[in-house]
Design brief:
This protein is of the alpha/beta class and about 450 residues long. It is about 35% helix and about 15% strand. Strand 2 and strand 3 form a beta hairpin. The longest helix is centred in the last third of the chain and has 19 residues, at about 420-435. The radius of gyration is 21 Å and the shape is globular. This is Lipase family protein.
Length: about 450
């Protein structure tokens, strides 16, 4: 992989770094494509991956409406795209106000389920006060970011799809996550230690990005002290998921993946140009402007077979499309850090058999895999219900405790575990503070989840 052949800047932060920008309370943020902050300065290509190019403080608000009593720092940083070329993207970093000085503050990179092409769904926009992002999943996932903050951890929330919103692309989500962590650790005003233990967490589309970061860590960013990754229902095989969801209640999700990937796979774009009907082309164009929930609602039971001039199976079996689906499949390398995989057996979106294969592949490659294969939950419910277990597992990694068992596999449902409800009680209290705009202090969720 070529991460840039030009000479790199030697500083931790870009020599042309912009002054720290103050936010204006109550102002409505501009969309990323109309916001100069997202434009990297000339010559940024020569900076090291993870170099901070610009920074600013911003106000966050739950659902864009309920202001939060915290200050977040946004960092535009140099990273790498799918083909190893220089790129820039943004992460939103929240550091806890209450810290102990004995040990470095742990850092969690939380990958939201962006699952869309539209910039309104990027966390750096959707989490801001005044953001118009109805249907962006990141706005709801802020409740889990708050739970991590309550543990006393700093949290980096990267725009892991990059500024182009390339949902489903391989490798580069991992680069974006890892470079976002480098940027946060390098940014002096955040006062984070380069030696800090780092954890990864994401669910669904965020789990996919987290898995790419875990897989690419050793090769791309061995300098990071990564101690564990939580892969919540990662989309292990997007090709399989496309076939599974096409024509269902969730047809909008695979449609957005195809729309995004056509921008980075020229042969796929050519297949679409040659075989999609006018209606099909218009549909793919329109979903690029939709939030995740909007696309799902507007495309219920939309069958791509009705939008092409060949049978869909024939198109999916062409070498060009098979190459795309093969290249975006997880499991190309086994992570060198422990991973917790969380997956519902009765998941209506992600096939449990695909995640079984991924867990087996990681384990065969030497990864310490703890696999929670939940027998009762479905896709959406498992995310919040697994949060207490996830936070406890990350806390153990930050404390350098040994993984309980190599390739542990559990089936006991989270719904039947008393510790789930103790943890959910605390998560409910944290959510109540978020909903009322009160400060989320350091009162660890794990204290009730034992």
């Amino acid at each position: 992989m070529d991460v840039g052949n030009a000479a790199w800047s030697t500083g931790a932060e870009w020599i042309g770094h912009a002054p720290h920008q103050d936010f204006q309370p109550g102002s409505r943020p501009a969309l990323p494509n109309a916001d100069p902050f997202y434009q990297p300065p000339a010559g940024y290509e020569h900076a090291r991956p993870g170099t901070v190019l610009q920074s600013r403080d911003v106000e966050l608000a739950f659902l864009g409406l309920i202001p939060q009593k915290l200050v977040a720092t946004q960092l535009l940083y140099r990273t790498t795209d799918l083909h190893g070329r220089p790129q820039a993207t943004v992460t939103t970093v929240i550091a806890p106000t209450e810290r102990t000085s004995e040990t470095p503050c742990p850092v969690v990179s939380y990958q939201c389920a962006i699952d869309a092409v539209a910039a309104r769904c990027f966390p750096s926009y959707a989490l801001r006060r005044g953001a118009r992002a109805v249907g962006a999943l990141a706005q709801f996932e802020f409740l889990l970011v708050a739970a991590a903050l309550a543990e006393g951890w700093a949290v980096s929330v990267p725009d892991h799809e990059g500024l182009g919103g390339i949902w489903g692309a391989p490798y580069e989500p991992g680069y974006h996550v890892l470079d976002g962590l480098r940027a946060a650790l390098n940014h002096t005003p955040l006062n984070l230690s380069a030696e800090a233990p780092v954890g990864l967490w994401g669910y669904s589309g965020g789990g996919l990005a987290t898995a790419w970061a875990a897989e690419m860590h050793t090769e791309y960013a061995p300098d990071l002290n990564l101690v564990g990754a939580v892969l919540g229902s990662p989309v292990g095989d997007l090709g399989h998921t496309f076939r599974r969801l096409n024509g269902t209640l969730f047809s909008g999700l695979p449609a957005m993946v195809v729309a995004a990937l056509s921008h980075v796979y020229p042969d796929l774009d050519r297949i679409i140009s040659e075989h999609a009907t006018d209606e099909g082309k218009a549909m793919l164009k329109s979903v690029e402007d939709m939030t995740t929930a909007e696309a799902v609602i507007r495309m219920i039971r939309k069958d791509m077979d009705d939008l092409v001039d060949w049978p869909l199976d024939r198109i999916l079996d062409t070498p060009e499309v098979r190459h795309v689906f093969d290249s975006i499949k997880l499991g190309t390398r086994a992570p060198s850090i422990p991973v917790l995989i969380v997956q519902a057996v009765h998941d209506e979106l992600i096939s449990v058999e695909v995640i079984d294969e991924l867990a087996d592949a990681y384990s065969a490659g030497g990864t310490d895999v703890t696999y929670h294969r939940d027998a009762l939950c479905e896709h959406l419910l498992l995310h919040p219900l697994s949060a207490p277990m996830t936070l406890r597992w990350l806390r153990e990694r930050f404390a350098d405790q040994p993984v309980s068992a190599h390739r542990a596999r559990t089936k006991w449902p989270t719904m039947l575990n008393p510790s789930t409800y103790r943890g959910m009680l605390r998560l409910g209290l944290i959510s109540a503070k978020v909903l009322t705009g009160r400060r989320v202090g350091r009162r660890p969720l794990s204290a009730l989840d034992r």
